Amino acid sequence: MKALPLYFFITSVFAATTSFAESSFEQELQQGCAKVKQYAQAGKKFYDQKQYAKAVKQFEDQAAWAHFCQLNTEESGIQVTDRDVEIANNNVGLSYAKLGKPQWARVWFLRNKDTKTSQYNLKQLPKPKLSTDLQGIYVRANGFGQWDYITVKKQQNRYLVDFEGYYFGLRGLIYGPNLGSFETNMPITAKQAKYRYEDCQIKLQFLNDPQNGQKIEVEQNNGQSTCGFGHNVYAGGTFYKVEG
């Protein structure tokens, strides 16, 4: 009997593996999306009991999966509206406000900054405290209720600046994100920092926003370089300080 070509065998195995991966993804997706209402109910229960730290965890899961399921509606079979995602984000923000973390609350409300609910909740927060000390954690909204981070620490007469960024593809909440990071430093008296990798240049400017607090405006000029990041990871944007 004539042997089958090797490439046919390899193709068959690849097709089977791909089919299994598709089936596994759909199963995890449907299971996760089925829990969105459970996260919301559990969060409300803890919120009403004034257990705000536990409420935050449930509402964060609600926010992450609501957005993820919305973008994967065809495979999840569950309809999630923009309003559902907005409510989930505001639930997290309200819980952080109750925990006495107004800056974390602020960035969650800012995820839907143009809606009436978010605008109302933003007005209820105390004015942000501005400081000459740049140390702290700064965040920028990423997909599926996630965040990119810049951490600033003081070391002798310099600030150490550490960026951790992510790119979540359409299936990123299950398969995981692409990662990117860099470290740089600047004098303690400075308000600007720079990072260079090959022909990639990144500039960071520290500013005070009377309305939303301390922030870092980041500009990234890629050139032909990926900046050493994973695919589609990007550092540019506005990062708000959420912790000192």
TrEMBL record:
Stated name of the protein: Uncharacterized protein
Keywords: Signal
Domain of life: Bacteria
Keyword Signal listed: yes
Signal peptide: 1-21
